[in-house]
Amino acid sequence: MLSATIRQQVKATAPILKQHGVLLTSHFYQRMFQHNPELKNIFNQGHQHAGQQQQALAMAVAAYAEHIDAPEVLLPVLERVAHKHASLGIRAEHYPIVGKHLLASIREVLGEEAAPDSLLEAWAAAYQQLADLLIQLENSLYQRAAIQPGGWSGWRPFRVVKKQVESEEITSFYLQAADGGSLPAFQPGQYISVQRFIPEWGLSQPRQYSLSDAPGKDWLRISVKREDARDEAPAGKVSGILHTELAEGDILQVSPPFGDFVLHQERDTPVVLISAGVGQTPLLSMLQHLLASDQSRPIRYLHAARHGAVHAMKQEVGTLAQQHAQLQQRVFYETPAANDTLGVDFHQQGRIDADAIRAHALLPDADYYLCGPVGFMQQQHRQLREAGVEATRIHMEVFGSNAMTTG
Question: Does residue 200 carry a catalytic annotation?
Answer without folding.
Answer: no
